[in-house]
Amino acid sequence: MTFIRIGLISVVIAAGLLSAACAGEETAASGASGASESSDQPAVPVTTTQVVQKSMPVEIQVIGAVEPFATVAIRSQVTGQLVTVSFREGDIVQKGQVLFELDRRPLQAALDQAQANLERDIAQAKNAELQAARFQQLAEKGIASKEQADTSKTSVTALNATVEADRAELANAQIQLQYATIVAPISGRTGALMVHQGNLVRANDDTSLVTINQVAPISVTFAIPESRLPELRRYMGRGSLTVTAMPQNGEGASVGQIAFIDNAVDQNTGTIRIKGTFPNDDGRLWPGQFVNVSVTLTTDPRAVVVPSVAVQSGQQGTYVFVVKADQSVEMRPVTIGRTRGAESVVASGVQPGDTIVTDGHLRLVPGSRISVKGAEGAKPTS
After folding, report:
1. Taking a C-beta distance cutoff of 8 angstroms, is the pair 304, 345 a contact?
2. DSSP class of 375
3. Can you give the pLDDT at residue 285?
4. What are the residue ranges of helices labelled H in 2-68?
5. CA dist 98 to 195, 222, 323, Å?
6. CATH topology for 108-176?
7. 61-67+216-301, CATH topology level
8. Matching CATH topology for 61-67+216-301 and 108-176?
9. Once rounded to an integer, what is the mean pLDDT over residues 295-311?
């Protein structure tokens, strides 16, 4: 019995040692496998660029609307039949160019009548002067009474006043005849024609014949926040400010100058109205068009610049992934001062020469290993 008990104990001890050995081998194998998986973690493919320091403008960017530099609604100042239209809708017309001709015959007849009345009254006035001179001589000789002499003088004065009235009427008739020819008061582009040849045009009618918009030069009106007004005025004191207008389709920018600042802030919006003037010789800007307006205040010669696509947003704010020397990345918070096009000016967080990730962010976490896709990724932004 003793021999059997000792044998069982030996078997149990041997089984325990064998189990422990197996467990140790599994643990070691598991640890080796984990280490192998960690070391075999694939690098995340990304594109990178370097943070650069360069000159960048300080701007105010808003949305503006294009307006004509001047607008004139053409109306007739006399009543008459429209006999000639000397342009087509949408034409560019020059100042002084004939636009409309009204029937001149009634106005010419009124002018001729005024001329005839003037000549008649001049003749009567001359005759009255001769009569007054005769009565004066007769009164001096006692042949005519003093009353007759005074009456003749009064008649001369009245007829001379009538002559002056006739001259004024003649001048008015001449002006009315000139109104029969309607010319463009400004150079610009015509709009829709509201009347056509043969229509009866009435003096000072509510409906204009046509509207002319002066489009070269042209104006762009926009509003900036009142908080930026002191800054704008400060830089305007140093010289004229350049304003750029870019159509919504991005087809070229027009450059002009600020010409007007409103005299009061709009209390409903907290903005102030600004107007810029543009030469618009190429006709790129069109009245009523919305444009992206950029006012250049000054230039920062040492701005720290990164591509805007490199800047990410999270719960803690904006950040970029910075590439470290061991080809891993760290997530670094940054403060963006302003954005211009595809570039952002960084106020703090990175330094010139730092390498940052511009594409491939979705697969990155702090400490991720990376591989740069292509040779272009390592080049700094221009």
Report:
1. yes
2. S
3. 94
4. 2-39
5. 16, 35, 71
6. Helix Hairpins (1.10.287)
7. Elongation Factor Tu (Ef-tu); domain 3 (2.40.30)
8. no
9. 92
Q: Is the pLDDT confidence value at 330 over 80? A: yes
Per-residue pLDDT of 189-207, as tens digits, reads 999 999 999 999 999 898 9
In a 3-state reduction of DSSP, which class is residue 259? strand
Separation between Cα atoms, residue 268 and residue 149, nearest integer Å: 78
Single-letter residue type at 107: L
Per-residue b or e along 308-332, where b marks 16 or more CB atoms closer than 10 Å to that residue's CB: eebbbeeeeeebbbbbeeeebbebe
Domain 44-54+302-378 has CATH 2.40.420.20: yes
b/e 71-102 (16+ beta carbons within 10 angstroms → b): ebebbbebbbebeebebeeeeebeeeeebbbb
- CATH of region 76-103+180-207: 2.40.50.100
- The answer to whether the CB of 80 falls within 8 A of the CB of 102 is yes
Strand 181-183 to strand 80-85: parallel, antiparallel, or no bridges (unpaired)? unpaired
Nearest to 322 by CA among 280, 353, 289: 353
* CA distances, 125 to each of 165, 310, 334 (Å): 13, 96, 96
**Which amino acid appears at position 114 of this protein?**
A
Task: State yes or no: pLDDT of 7 exceeds 50.
Answer: no
All structural domains of the chain with their residue ranges: 44-54+302-378, 61-67+216-301, 76-103+180-207, 108-176
The pLDDT score that the predictor gives to residue 14 is 44
Determine phi and psi for 189, rounding to 5 degrees: -105, 135
Instruction: Identify the residue whose tokens are 């000792």.
Output: 6
Structure tokens at 133: 């001179």
User: What are the backbone angles phi and psi of residue 16, rounded to the nearest 5°?
Assistant: -65, -45
Q: What single-letter DSSP state applies at residue 194?
A: -
Please state, in angstroms and rounded to a whole number, the distance separating the CA atoms of residues 350 and 301.
17
Average pLDDT, the chain: 85
pTM for the predicted model, two decimal places: 0.68
Q: Identify whether the C-beta of residue 280 lies closer than 8 Å to the C-beta of residue 189.
A: no
Whether 380 contacts 358, CB under 8 Å: no
- State the pLDDT confidence band at 149, using cuts at 50, 70 and 90: confident
Q: Two tokens at 297?
A: 């205040």
For 210-238, the DSSP string reads EEEEEEEEEEEEEEEEGGGHHHHHHHHTT
376 touches 334 (CB < 8 A): no
